[in-house]
Write a structure and sequence with these properties.
There is one protein chain. The protein is α/β, with parallel strands linked by helices and about 210 residues long. It has helices at about 45-55, 75-90, 100-105, 110-125, 140-160, 190-210, and strands at about 5, 25-30, 60-65, 70, 90-95, 130, 160-165. Helix 1 crosses helix 6 (about 190-210), helix 2 runs parallel beside helix 4 and helix 4 runs parallel beside helix 5 (about 140-160).
């Protein structure tokens, strides 16, 4: 497994929000698994790096830290999170975990509890949270896949979070955009991943940066 840490593109402080918000850059922590850790592609091709480039181009004073680890489960993510929050003090966290729990057939109650604990930890440390939903292959059966997917929307409602309904929506439906494992998007699909995140992320950033 690999911990990818990206803190690039220090942006201009001439951003058109309040002068207090522009004194120093805002930190966004992407906290996920291989879908966010550039698995099978070059790091610079991943959607998190494309996000930093987009933020720079639109003059958002935001530094992206990618704390994603390939193969990570919600249990591993929960164990790592306190140190990540302490190290980076993010104002916003994109939580993209659970897929590996599902692929391993782990109990949904455990996944839900771990995600809820990570959300609570982030909020207790002053970070807002955006949750990203994941679907697992249908061969796991509807009795598992349906409640698995519903966990994300239920948690988002319970915790009053912004939700990206399905991180790789529109990609997994096109096999030519997926790597040979059928799980990870190819490099040319990473911009589509960002397109799924951006409509949820941008308004959240605009609100937070005005505070």
């Amino acid at each position: 497994m690999r911990l990818t840490r990206l803190c690039i593109f220090c942006l201009s402080c001439s951003f058109s929000f309040s002068s207090g918000a522009a004194d120093e850059n805002f930190t966004l922590l992407v906290y996920g698994d291989s879908l966010s850790a550039s698995y099978g592609i070059e790091e610079e091709q991943g959607w998190t790096n494309l996000l930093q480039i987009k933020l720079r181009s639109e003059e958002f004073p935001v530094d992206v830290i990618n704390g994603s680890v390939s193969g990570e489960t919600t249990t591993g993510g929960l164990a790592r999170l306190p140190a990540m929050l302490d190290s980076y003090q993010p104002e916003l966290l994109i939580l993209e975990l659970g897929g590996n729990d599902g692929l391993r057939g782990l109990p949904l109650d455990l996944m839900r509890e771990n995600l809820a604990s990570m959300i609570d930890l982030a909020k207790a440390n002053g970070a807002e949270v955006i949750l990203t939903g994941i679907q697992i292959p249908p061969n796991y059966g509807p009795r598992y896949t349906a409640p698995f997917f519903e966990t994300y929307s239920a948690l988002a409602e319970q915790k009053s979070l912004a939700l990206v309904p399905f991180l790789i929506e529109g990609i997994v439906q096109q096999p030519e955009l997926m790597q040979s494992d059928g799980i990870h998007p190819r490099a040319e699909a990473q911009a589509m991943v960002l397109d799924n995140v951006w409509p949820i992320l941008k308004p959240k950033l605009e609100i937070l940066l005005k505070k």
